[in-house]
Amino acid sequence: MEPRALTERERAVLDALLAVDFEGVEELRRQAAGALVVGTCACGCPSIDFQDGVGLTVRVDATVRGGYDQLFLYTFGERLGGIEWAGVAERPAEFPPPERLEISVPPPPSAT
Question: Which domain of life, per UniProt (predicted)?
């Protein structure tokens, strides 16, 4: 697909996910300012990719209030990777409004 600008809802959700503090968030906020969507999910869910890569790291989780659906922001190394939708009940065409999200930062992976 041709790279495209984020929709209003995608931008609002990305901004909400980056509003929490975690290591490296300042750099991700800078990257977000110029982020473009370069891929979407073939299933029709609202997942979006900002770049292709391997070895993703989940940086921020969000559950949707009043349901079982969730989404997460991931990176490839220190670069924004995308926002992945993990729906249980439905497959919406767009992300829910940010005010419906319960956002949290997962604990860092333990070194074993």
Answer: Bacteria
**How far from the centroid of its chain's Cα atoms is residue 88's Cα?**
17
pLDDT greater at residue 10 or residue 92: 10
Position 93 confidence tier, pLDDT thresholds 50, 70, 90: confident
| Residue 27 amino acid letter | E
Look-up of token digits 């990777």: 81
Half-sphere exposure of 19 (CA within 13 A, CB side): 13
Residue 32, helix vs strand vs coil: helix
Q: 2 and 89 in contact (C-beta within 8 Å)?
A: no
Rounded to whole angstroms, how far apart are CA atoms 95 and 19?
17
Q: What is the pTM of this model?
A: 0.92
H helix runs in the chain, sequence order? 8-17, 25-33
